Amino acid sequence: MIEVTGLTKRFGPAAAVDDLSFQVPPGRITGFLGPNGAGKTTTMRLILGLDRPTAGHALVGGVPYRSMRRPLTHVGALLDATAVQGGRRAEQHLRWLARSNGISPRSIGSLLELVGLGDVGRKRIGGFSLGMKQRLGMAAALLGDPEVLLLDEPTNGLDPEGIRWTRGLLKSLAAEGRTVLVSSHLMSEMALTADHLIILARGRLLADAGVADLVRPGVSLEDVFMRVIAGGER
Ligand SMILES: Nc1ncnc2c1ncn2[C@@H]1O[C@H](COP(=O)(O)OP(=O)(O)OP(=O)(O)O)[C@@H](O)[C@H]1O
């Protein structure tokens, strides 16, 4: 469970996240939507303790992320898949992450297989495509077998097979009772993947509702999104 309460982050006079409150319960996929600059990444960074809020707080499993001793065993995150040291080999990168969180490296081989990087585990990350880095980022997020996953545009750069694979993976993770918060700009993909949606604009919450309640025959998620955003800007 992720709980966000009155969360606010100002960069100078502008609020990137503005008095935001929502909950992400386990056992379903929650899509996190909003136009460019809506505050999705900033919200995820605040949940992960990478930025300090101006006001409010975010809890994961009832505690602040920063208070977790071995955070990767509770929360798996994929924020910026390109923020990895290009000189490291994929396997080495996961080994380093595992060691820093007291996680056994035993699962690294099978994780690389799972994300489709089984053949390139010994290759340097610098030579990876964006899609391959996303796959590696997903392996890193799953390394600690966490109950909560925060994924910022995980399908960015993935090919159609990779997008479909990600959808199946997220569905199985949610079906196992994990909490899954995933941002995306791909409305048709979100309509297929998410059970529930949180929609933001200008750092404010505009909608927090089930996909089935929003999308109806003849009304696509893209239509709903445009309408919600237009309403929020009036
Ligand atoms: N470190 C920072 N310093 C100043 N402004 C920032 C910083 N980080 C984010 N912002 C601003 O906060 C706002 C929200 O940005 P954020 O990246 O959270 O949006 P987003 O919804 O993730 O956007 P996108 O869909 O484009 O990735 C933007 O106006 C952005 O310019």
Automatic annotation (TrEMBL):
SUPFAM superfamilies: P-loop containing nucleoside triphosphate hydrolases. Residues 2-227 form the ABC transporter domain. GO terms for molecular function: ATP binding; ATP hydrolysis activity. Pfam families: ABC_tran (PF00005). Keywords: ATP-binding, Nucleotide-binding, Transport. Belongs to the ABC transporter superfamily. PANTHER family: ABC TRANSPORTER, ATP-BINDING PROTEIN. This is ABC-2 type transport system ATP-binding protein. It comes from Nonomuraea dietziae.
